[in-house]
Design brief:
Blueprint (H helix, E strand, L loop, with lengths): L24 H6 L8 H15 L2 H10 L11 H23 L5 E3 L3 H9 L5 H21 L2 H7 L2 H23 L2 E3 L10 E3 L8 H18 L5 H19 L32 H6 L1 H29 L12 H17 L5 E3 L3 H6 L6 H13 L3 H5 L3 H4 L1 H14 L8 H16 L3 H18 L8 H15 L7
Antiparallel strand pairs: 1-4, 2-3
Helix pairs in contact: 2-15, 3-4, 3-5, 4-13, 4-15, 5-12, 6-12, 6-13, 8-18, 8-19, 8-20, 9-10, 9-18, 12-13, 19-20, 20-21
Length: 485
Amino acid sequence: MSTSATAKVPPSPESPEDRRPPQNAVDRYFKISERGSTLAREIRGGLATFFAMAYIIVLNPIILGSAKDMYGHQLDNGQLVTATALTAAFTTLLMGVIGNVPIALAAGLGVNSVVALQLAPRMSWPDAMGMVVLAGFVVMLLVATGLRERVMNAVPYGLRKAIAIGIGLFIMLIGLVDSGFVTRMPDAAQTTVPLQLGTGGHLVGWPVLVFVLGVLLTLALIVRKTPGAILISIVVMTVVAMIINALADIPTWGLTTPEWPGNPVATPDFGLVGQVSLFGGFEKVGVLTGVLFVFTVLLSCFFDAMGTIMAVSDEAKLTDAEGQMPGINKVLLVDGLAVASGGASSASATTCFVESTAGVGEGARTGFANIVTGALFAVALFLTPVATMVPSQAATPALVAVGFLILAGSIREIDWADFTIAIPAFVTMLMMPFTYSITNGIGMGFVAFCVLRLAAGRGREVPVAMYAVSAVFAFYYLMPALGLT
């Protein structure tokens, strides 16, 4: 998960007494002593970050593996575990060596939903992952040309926050549906209610009980500010599910069966790595829709990563007196490469994780913490049987918790008194879960913003880029009426 935040007041630097001359070549390269840290703190921070975000090894395969492409194909769960751990290890190590910041990366929650629920049903899996790779190339191009921050500045701050909130609500709804806590009403029911509680309006079965207990446990651990709360909840509820499964006759737990594997260690299956078609998706959906899909993946990664980078660097006291982080272009470049590499491995776009603040809280200040975190993800490559035994009802409580955390971290940042921002933000955050589409939420919010600013006589305040993007979205929505689909 990655939730956006913006540094407002630059922190004070480390006190001079915390800084010592470099002790060795590693210390000198990573500037450990220079930044007032120690090797022990970096190791401890790397461990904390890994355990805070290791849940993605379970959650990402569940989200991607539960979806089908236009041909009815599903991705293999074991191969997804390998792809997720591999990309997290590679990009986290790369960020540590090149960016020298304690910011770990992994498959982003939110963007994987875009890939699974919007791209894949309209094309093949290689086509969908190809669009993720293209989005990564665009990010790197924007960084190389210096346009990334300019594009970011074109979208109003309130709308950026609304996009994050909408993704959070969307993630929460996915968790409720995938767990069976909420189910779809069949069309034959002839009802205006699209969703219902549990089965037939009632919560029935042991699996749903596991989910409910998992949600309560996760939220209780978060309230107590327990490090690694999400991962702890997944592990505990998986054990509970295994016990229940041994005592009760349960036909299915959903996506996986909670049974302890005979051998918890296995050779990684790299079958999904390189299964990419860069331009095949455009043949399936057309150039305009394909461009919008790439743009949606880009936005899902773009603003969230920028906010996370600034939030973590601010907490780690890596910003200067103006609140800027020296060497940020290296960090942004690695972030763009991470998006592309996630698509190339079929793990979906990889992005910066705000859980990195767990490592910063333990004292991490340099990229050496990432070396520790990345190494642990590499070890996880050989633990696929353990990851695939987790039932969806034990993992989906994390989606509810992540959705809340995204909302809580962003909703107060919107100027609700300015209706030209508040209404588009409202439209953006609600249309994502209500239409089951992140693209729709972004597009409708952008169009609403431009129309309302014009109606208020404030059209000159809208950047040209916003008008251009909104026009593309408006044309996209009008295509069926124009007979172009």
